[in-house]
Design goal:
heterotrimer; A alpha/beta (426); B alpha/beta (711); C alpha+beta (151); B: 711 residues; Phosphorylase Kinase, domain 1; Rossmann fold; 28 helices; globular; C: Alpha-Beta Plaits; two-stranded antiparallel ribbon; two-stranded antiparallel sheet
Chain lengths: 426, 711, 151
C-alpha cells in the first residue's frame, strides 16, 4: 500500500487530502501539523478578535476528529517536521525520527514577519496570522483598557485590524514603509480616496516610514520610526507581511539528490510538482505561475491555496490536472468599503479612471493590455472582471461575450471599461 | 436548519408548513389577458405568487408585472381608511373617518348637487380597475345622469370605433386559425400581452411568415420578424396606403371579394394612388424594396392576419391610422376566414366569450332620456355617435369653461391625473369643483384633490367573476381578507346606491345578485363556477363559425365593408371628418428647428403598465430611473452618454430624466414610458392635442427637443 | 444526477419576469438595498453591420466545479448531493466577498445582514418536484430545468 505525507494542515494541506480521496487514492495519508488544532483560516482571525465569529469558526472544516474520520488520515498533531530528505523522500522530525513516503506534499504555508525590534517581551506587541496570535490580541483587548494602538502594515490584514480596533473606540495610527494603502494592490488614485476615508474617521496614517525599534513597558509601547518619530500607544500590532515556511527543504544538506528549488517560496510547475520527483508543494509556501509576468511567485490567497492543494492532490493520486497559475488579486471589505485590486499597481502604462453612481474603476493599461484594475464599491463585478483580465493577458478562456458585456453594463460598469475588457461590437 | 425550516423558507405548500395555495386573478393590466394566480397564503398573508397551471390562458406563467402581485398588493402607499380632506385641494392634509361618515357625506353632497344643478352636473369617471364598469354605468344611470366616462376615452375604444366604421363590428386577429402571414403593426406582443406573444412564437415555429411594423426596434422586431419595417413616427397611414397602392397597381387585390363585400373601392383607390413608392419612402423612411416585399406577401400569402396594436390610435390622426391598416385586410380579402380577422361579440366586460348575457340591459335599463349633451358630445361627434360614454378628454375644458353647462362634482373611481395631457389643467379643473370623491388602492395625485377618499381592495382581496374567450367563466373568492379597512369597489357602489337611488333594488342587492340578473340564462354555470372557484366552461358556449358574419351581411349602413364610411359622411361637414382614412402630418404647426425631435410616449416596458409598476420596488428595480430612449447617432451628436441627465421639453412643458442610449430609437426620434410622477410624459402634451375623430390624445407623436444637463 | 437551470437566449426577451419571480420567492427587499439573485437585461450590439439587441437572464450557473466553494474562507458553500445545485448556509459567512472574486458570473451578493446569498436553484422546490421560481414563470420557456447525466 502506498503511503503519502502531507506536511502542513492549512488550506492547501486540507484540499490536498480531500483531493487525494476524491481522485481515488486509497493508500495511507499521514498529515504532519505543528499545531494541535484543525485547519484554520488566517483570514478569520481578525473576525474572531472583532467578536464577529466564535472561536471554533476559525476552523472552517470542522474538528480534527471529523477530518480524520472523513478522509481516513493519520494526523500527527503538534509535530514539527524539521527536514525533508529529498532523495529518500524521508520526513525528518524534531526528535530525529525519519519516515519514508512514496509522495510528499509540502503545504507548510507562511508565517507573519516578526522582525527583531529590540526591547520587548511585555506582551504589548502582537502579530496577526495564527489562532494563537488571535487569542493573544483578543485577550489583551478584553482584559485591559486599550485606547490607542499602532498598526504597522497597510495591508489587507492591517486594515481589518484597524477596523476592529476603531470599532472598539481605539485611537489608531497606521504605519507603512510604502507610499500608500495596500501598496501591492492599490493604485495611487484609488488609495487617495480610501486614505481620505480613513483620515475622516480620525485614523492617522504614516507612510514612507518603518519601525526602527520598539520599547515596551508594562504600561505602554513606544514605537520609534525610521524617520525619527516616536509613537506611544497601548499596543502595537505588526501586519508587515508573511514569509514562506520553506526551511524544511532550504539550506539542508543534500547528499544523495538535488535540492528542492526554492526562491522566496518552493518553486512548482502547473501540476504542483517541485523539481524533485515525488515531492509536491502547494499554498503559501510555494511559488506558482504569475499569469501576468509568466514568472513564479507566491500568491498568498486562500482560494489560490485551495486550488493548488486540490491540483497537487489530483496529480499525486495519478491524475493529470493543471493549475495554470494566478495573478495578484484581492478583495477586501472593511467599514462600508469594498476594494478590489487585480494585477500589479506599479506597472507602467496609461492610467484611466471611470466613475459613475455604481462606484469607481481605475485602470492601468497599454492599449488593450491590462496591467492593473482597481474597483471601489461594485464588488459584484469583481469575479467577471478578473476572469476577463486573465483572458486579456493570457488568451485563456473566452472573449468577452455579448451576454457578459450586457451583464457588466447592467451592473453599472462604464462602457469605456467594457471596451478595455474586450468590447463586443464587430 | 431543520427540514421543516428549509421547506418554510422555500415556501412549500402543505400541512407541514401551514402554507395554503388559493386561486385568484391578476388585475394589474387590462381585463382581456388577465391571468389566473396561485396565491401562497400563510396566516392570512400572501407570501408568494405563481401563475395558475390549470388556467386556460396563462397555464402557470405570468408576466413581469403579474409576478410582482404580492408587492403590488402590499404597496406601502395603500390607502388604509376612508379619509376626509381638511387642508387645501392638492395637499396631503387628510384625516381618517369612518365608512359610515364617508358614504353619508358623499350621498349628501351628491344629492344636494343633483338637487341644485341637475344630475348631469356630476361626472362619473373610472380609470383602473375595469371590472366595475357595468355597475358604475348603472349607478350613473340610476342617479339620473349620463356623464359616465372611462379611461377608454384614451385607449382601446378608438380602434374599436375604426373597426366598427369599416366592418360594422369590432374585429380581432385569429391567431388560432393558423395564419400563414402575421402582420404585427405597432405590435410588440412579447411585452404588450405575453399570451399573444406565445401565439406569435407558435405561429412562427409552425412556419408562418411574420412582418413587424414598428417605429421602435422591439423584441418582436429582433426575434419574430421575417421582415421588419420601421416607419417614422406618425407615418403609418402613408405606409399602409403605399402598400395598398402597389397591390392595386399590380392587380394583386382580391377583386372578387371586393366586388361582393366592399363599399367605396373607387374612392379608396383614388386616394391611395397618391402614394407611390418614392413618396412613401420619402415620408416614412421605409426602403422601397421593403414596401414592395410587404405588398407582395400581404397579397400573396393566405390566410393573412393584418392587425394594428392599440398604440397606433394615439396620434392626432390615429383613428384613421387604424382604419388605413384594416383596409389592407379588405383589399386582400382577409376577412372572416380562419387565420384572418373575425368579428367580436361581447359577452361581458368587453370580452367575447362565445355566449350572451344581459349585461347591456343591466347597465342601461335604468337610464333616463338625455336632456343636455354629454361631455365631449359637441366636440367629438363621431365618438358620440359610436359610443355611449362621455368623452373624458373634454372634461377639464367643460369644468373650466362651464360650457355647455357647469360640472359641479366628480366621482372618481381609480382615476389618475396623469392620464390627461397637461395634467395641470385637470388639477386646476378639480380645484374648481364643489365636490370630489375618489376610490383607489393607492394614494394618487387625484386623491389629493378629493374631498373624500375611499380605500378599495385588490383582486386578491375580493370575489369576482371573469369571462374569457372559449366560454370560460372564472369566479374567484378572496385569497386574503381585504387589507386595512378597504372594501371592494362594487360594495362601495352598492352602499352608494342604497343612499342615492334606493329604488334601484337590484343594484342595492349587491354584486352576486347583479350577476344572477346578467347571467340568468347561465345560472347553473354561474353557481358552479362560484362553487368550484376554478375555470368553468359555460354550457351555453358556442364557438364562432368563420364566414357567418359576412354571410349574414355586415352591420354597416351599406351592409358592406366600408372603405368609404357612410356614417362619417352624415356628420356635419364643419367638423372636417373624412369618410376615407386620409393622411395628414400629425406634427401640427410646431417649429421643427426649435423642436427637432419627434417624441413617442407610452411604448410599453415590461415592468409597468401606466403608473402602476413605478411604485412597486421589484418592478421599479428593473428600470430604476425614468429614462428617454435616444439613438446612438443623436446621442453622439448632442454629447449625451448613457445615464446622463437630460432636459426634455416641448411647447407645452419640460421634464428632467436620464438618457438611455439605444438602437430601440430611430434617429430623430425619442421614446419614454409615461406615468412617472417625477418625469410625467403628459406634462409635455398640450391639453387640446386630440384626434378630432376619437378625442384621443396624441401621446405618441409630439415635437420636442432634448439637451444634456450638467451632472 | 445533477440539475441545471438552462438558458435559451433565442427565446428570451428580457422581460424580467424571472427576476421578479426570484425576488418574490426569496423575499429580496430591493427597496432596502438588497440585490437580486437573478437579473435580466438587454444590450445593443452590431453583427454583420446591422444593429441588434441581445436579451439575457443570468444568475448562478451552478458550475460543476464551482470556484466559489473553495474560495469561501468559512466553508459556507457546497454542492447538494441530491440536486447538484451549488447551495450555501451563510450562518458562518463573514461577508468578505471572496466568493464574488471567485465567481465569473457575478452571482454572489451580500444580503441586508452583510452575508452572502445567491440563487440556490430553488433547491427545496426541485427536491419535491417543482420548478425553480424563475423557470416556472418564464412566459417564453427561455429558462428550463434540465437534468444532466452524471457520466
Amino acid at each position: 500500500m502506498q503511503k503519502f505525507a502531507i506536511i502542513g494542515m492549512g488550506c492547501a494541506g486540507y484540499h490536498g487530502v480531500k483531493s487525494l480521496r476524491e481522485h481515488g487514492y486509497e493508500g495511507e495519508i499521514h498529515v504532519f501539523s505543528d499545531v494541535s488544532h484543525p485547519t484554520a483560516n488566517p483570514m478569520l482571525t481578525t473576525y474572531y478578535v472583532a467578536g464577529k465569529i466564535p472561536r471554533e469558526r476559525m476552523f472552517p472544516f470542522g474538528s480534527l476528529e471529523e477530518f480524520t474520520r472523513e478522509f481516513d488520515v493519520q494526523v500527527h498533531a503538534d509535530t514539527k517536521v524539521l527536514r525533508v530528505d529529498t532523495g529518500s523522500r524521508c520526513v525528518v522530525l524534531e526528535d530525529g525520527t525519519r519516515e519514508a513516503f512514496d509522495k510528499i506534499l509540502i503545504a507548510t504555508g507562511a508565517r507573519a514577519v516578526s522582525p527583531a525590534l529590540g526591547q520587548g517581551g511585555a506582551g504589548r506587541t502582537f502579530l496577526m496570522r495564527t489562532v494563537s496570535d488571535a487569542d493573544q490580541l483578543k485577550t489583551m483587548l478584553e482584559q485591559n483598557r486599550v485606547s490607542s494602538a499602532v498598526v504597522v502594515g497597510a495591508s489587507m490584514v492591517g486594515i481589518k485590524v484597524v477596523e476592529l480596533l476603531y470599532n472598539r473606540n481605539v485611537k489608531v495610527t497606521m504605519v507603512d514603509m510604502a507610499s500608500r494603502l495596500f501598496p501591492l494592490a492599490c493604485m495611487q488614485e484609488t488609495a487617495e480616496i480610501l486614505e481620505q476615508d480613513l483620515k475622516d474617521r480620525g485614523i492617522d496614517l504614516l507612510f514612507r516610514t518603518g519601525v526602527d525599534h520598539v520599547e515596551e513597558t508594562g504600561e505602554e509601547v513606544k514605537t520609534f520610526l525610521t524617520d525619527g518619530t516616536c509613537l506611544t500607544s497601548d499596543i502595537l500590532v505588526l501586519c508587515i507581511g508573511t514569509r514562506a515556511n520553506v526551511e524544511l527543504v532550504a539550506n539542508t544538506q543534500v547528499i544523495e539528490s538535488e535540492p528542492v528549488k526554492v526562491n522566496r517560496g518552493i518553486v512548482v510547475n502547473t501540476r504542483m510538482e517541485t523539481n524533485v520527483p515525488g515531492i509536491y508543494a502547494a499554498g503559501d509556501c510555494c511559488e506558482g505561475t504569475n499569469l501576468q509576468t509568466g514568472e513564479t511567485m507566491i500568491i498568498g490567497l486562500w482560494a489560490n491555496a485551495a486550488a493548488q492543494g486540490s491540483c497537487a492532490g489530483a496529480n499525486m493520486a495519478g491524475c493529470v490536472e493543471e493549475f495554470p497559475g494566478s495573478l495578484p488579486n484581492n478583495i477586501t471589505h472593511y467599514f462600508d468599503k469594498d476594494f478590489i485590486g487585480i494585477g500589479d499597481p506599479d506597472l507602467p502604462g496609461e492610467r484611466n479612471i471611470f466613475t459613475n453612481s455604481h462606484g469607481m474603476v481605475s485602470v492601468i493599461h497599454e492599449k488593450d493590455q491590462l496591467k492593473c484594475v482597481n474597483i471601489l464599491g461594485n464588488y459584484r463585478i469583481s469575479g467577471m472582471v478578473k476572469e476577463y483580465f486573465v483572458h486579456r493577458i493570457t488568451g485563456q478562456g473566452e472573449d468577452l461575450t455579448i451576454a457578459d458585456a450586457g451583464l457588466l453594463r447592467a451592473s453599472g460598469v462604464p462602457e469605456d471599461f467594457i471596451v478595455l475588457l474586450g468590447g463586443y461590437h464587430d | 436548519m431543520t427540514k421543516q425550516e428549509k421547506q418554510m423558507c422555500a415556501k412549500l405548500a402543505g400541512p407541514e408548513t401551514g402554507i395554503e395555495i388559493k386561486h385568484s386573478v391578476c388585475d394589474i393590466c387590462t381585463p382581456g389577458p388577465q391571468c389566473g394566480l396561485n396565491v401562497y397564503v400563510k396566516d392570512g398573508k400572501a407570501i408568494k405568487i405563481e401563475g395558475m397551471p390549470e388556467f386556460p390562458s396563462n397555464r402557470g406563467k405570468l408576466c413581469t408585472k403579474g409576478a410582482a402581485n404580492r408587492q403590488y398588493v402590499y404597496r406601502e402607499d395603500r390607502i388604509k381608511t376612508p379619509m376626509k380632506r381638511v387642508g387645501e385641494r392638492g395637499s396631503d392634509d387628510f384625516v381618517p373617518i369612518s365608512w359610515e361618515e364617508a358614504l353619508d357625506t358623499i350621498a349628501q353632497k351628491l344629492s344636494e348637487i343633483r338637487e341644485a344643478y341637475g344630475p348631469e352636473s356630476v361626472a362619473w369617471f373610472t380609470g383602473y380597475t375595469k371590472w366595475i364598469r357595468p355597475w358604475l354605468r348603472r349607478l350613473c344611470n340610476s342617479f339620473g345622469g349620463h356623464n359616465y366616462m372611462t379611461e377608454s376615452s384614451t385607449c382601446f375604444r378608438s380602434g374599436r370605433m375604426a373597426n366598427e366604421t369599416i366592418f360594422g363590428r369590432d374585429m380581432r386577429g385569429d391567431l388560432m386559425g393558423r395564419p400563414q402571414l402575421l402582420v404585427g403593426w405597432a405590435c410588440n406582443p412579447y411585452i404588450n400581452a405575453y399570451v399573444m406573444g406565445q401565439g406569435f412564437v407558435r405561429a412562427k415555429e409552425a412556419g408562418a411568415k411574420i412582418i413587424i411594423i414598428d417605429v421602435r426596434h422591439t423584441q418582436a422586431a429582433e426575434k419574430l420578424a421575417d421582415l421588419f419595417l420601421r416607419p417614422r413616427i406618425g407615418t403609418d397611414i402613408v405606409l399602409a396606403h403605399a402598400i395598398a397602392n402597389l397591390i392595386i397597381q399590380n392587380g394583386w387585390q382580391d377583386q372578387a371579394f371586393i366586388d361582393q363585400y366592399v363599399h367605396g373601392f373607387e374612392e379608396y383607390r383614388n386616394m391611395v394612388s397618391a402614394y407611390d413608392l418614392e413618396t412613401a419612402e420619402r415620408i416614412t423612411g421605409v426602403p422601397q424594396k421593403d414596401i414592395r416585399t410587404a405588398a407582395e406577401w400581404m397579397s400573396q400569402i393566405k390566410p393573412a392576419c393584418i392587425t394594428p396594436s392599440n398604440g397606433i390610435v394615439h396620434h392626432i390622426n390615429g383613428y384613421n391610422a387604424h382604419r388605413a391598416v384594416m383596409c389592407l385586410d379588405l383589399i386582400t380579402g382577409n376577412v372572416d376566414k380562419p387565420g384572418t380577422i373575425l368579428p367580436v361579440y361581447d359577452t361581458y366586460c368587453d370580452i367575447g366569450s362565445g355566449f350572451s348575457t344581459y349585461e347591456e340591459e343591466f347597465m342601461n335599463e335604468t337610464s333616463t332620456p338625455k336632456t343636455v349633451p354629454q361631455i365631449g358630445e359637441e366636440r367629438f361627434p363621431l365618438w358620440n355617435r359610436m359610443t355611449s360614454d362621455a368623452q373624458t378628454m373634454d372634461l377639464p375644458r367643460q369644468v373650466l369653461e362651464g360650457k355647455p353647462y357647469e360640472i359641479h362634482a366628480l366621482a372618481a373611481f381609480g382615476v389618475n391625473t396623469m392620464i390627461f395631457p397637461e395634467p395641470g389643467k385637470f388639477r386646476e379643473a378639480m380645484k374648481k369643483l364643489d365636490f370630489i370623491f375618489a376610490t383607489d388602492l393607492f394614494w394618487t395625485d387625484a386623491c389629493k384633490y378629493a374631498d373624500i377618499v375611499l380605500p378599495v381592495c385588490s383582486s386578491l382581496e375580493r370575489s369576482e367573476l371573469k369571462c374569457y374567450p372559449g366560454g370560460v367563466m372564472y369566479y374567484v373568492s378572496p385569497a386574503i381578507a381585504p387589507l386595512y379597512e378597504s372594501r371592494d369597489d362594487v360594495e362601495v357602489m352598492t352602499e352608494l346606491a342604497k343612499r342615492l337611488c334606493p329604488e334601484d333594488k337590484l343594484l342595492c342587492a349587491g354584486y352576486h345578485e347583479s350577476l344572477r340578473y346578467m347571467f340568468r340564462d347561465e345560472l347553473e354555470d354561474l353557481e358552479k363556477a362560484r362553487e368550484t372557484g376554478m375555470p368553468h366552461r359555460c354550457s351555453k358556449f358556442k364557438p364562432y363559425i368563420p364566414g357567418t358574419y359576412l354571410k349574414n351581411g355586415p352591420e354597416t349602413k351599406t351592409g358592406k365593408l366600408e372603405l368609404y364610411s357612410e356614417l362619417i359622411r352624415e356628420i356635419d361637414p364643419d367638423y372636417h371628418l373624412d369618410p376615407l382614412p386620409v393622411y395628414y402630418d400629425g406634427n401640427r404647426g410646431t417649429d421643427p428647428e426649435k423642436y427637432p425631435f419627434v417624441l413617442m410616449t407610452g411604448a410599453r416596458l415590461p415592468n409597468t403598465i401606466h403608473s402602476r409598476g413605478h411604485k412597486v420596488p421589484w418592478l421599479r428595480s428593473l428600470r430604476p430611473d425614468p429614462m428617454v430612449d435616444i439613438s446612438p447617432e443623436d446621442a453622439r451628436a448632442l454629447g449625451i452618454r448613457q445615464g446622463d441627465k437630460v432636459r426634455l421639453y416641448s411647447e407645452t412643458g419640460e421634464i428632467h430624466l436620464l438618457a438611455n442610449v439605444t438602437e430601440v430609437a430611430s434617429q430623430g426620434e425619442l421614446h419614454l414610458i409615461h406615468g412617472y410622477e417625477e418625469a410625467n410624459a403628459s406634462d409635455l402634451i398640450a391639453t387640446d392635442y386630440l384626434d378630432p375623430y376619437s378625442g384621443f390624445p396624441s401621446y405618441k407623436q409630439l415635437r420636442c427637443a432634448i439637451e444634456k444637463e450638467d451632472a | 444526477m445533477s440539475y441545471k437551470i438552462s438558458f435559451y437566449p433565442e427565446r428570451c426577451v428580457a422581460c424580467g419576469a424571472c427576476a421578479v419571480a426570484c425576488m418574490d420567492q426569496n423575499d429580496i427587499q430591493v427597496q432596502d438595498g438588497a440585490q437580486p439573485f437573478r437579473r435580466s437585461y438587454q444590450i445593443d450590439y452590431h453583427a454583420d453591420g446591422n444593429p441588434h439587441i441581445g436579451y439575457f437572464s443570468a444568475a448562478c450557473e451552478h458550475c460543476d466545479d464551482a470556484p466559489c466553494i473553495d474560495a469561501c474562507p468559512s466553508n459556507c458553500i457546497s454542492k447538494d448531493a441530491e440536486t447538484g445545485f451549488t447551495v450555501y448556509d451563510n450562518t458562518n459567512c463573514i461577508g468578505c466577498r471572496s466568493c464574488s472574486m471567485a465567481c465569473p458570473h457575478g452571482a454572489p451578493v451580500m444580503d441586508l445582514n452583510g452575508k452572502m446569498s445567491k440563487c440556490d436553484g430553488c433547491n427545496e422546490r426541485v427536491k419535491v418536484g417543482l420548478s425553480p421560481a424563475c423557470v416556472a414563470v418564464c412566459p417564453f420557456d427561455a429558462l428550463k430545468l434540465e437534468e444532466e447525466n452524471a457520466d
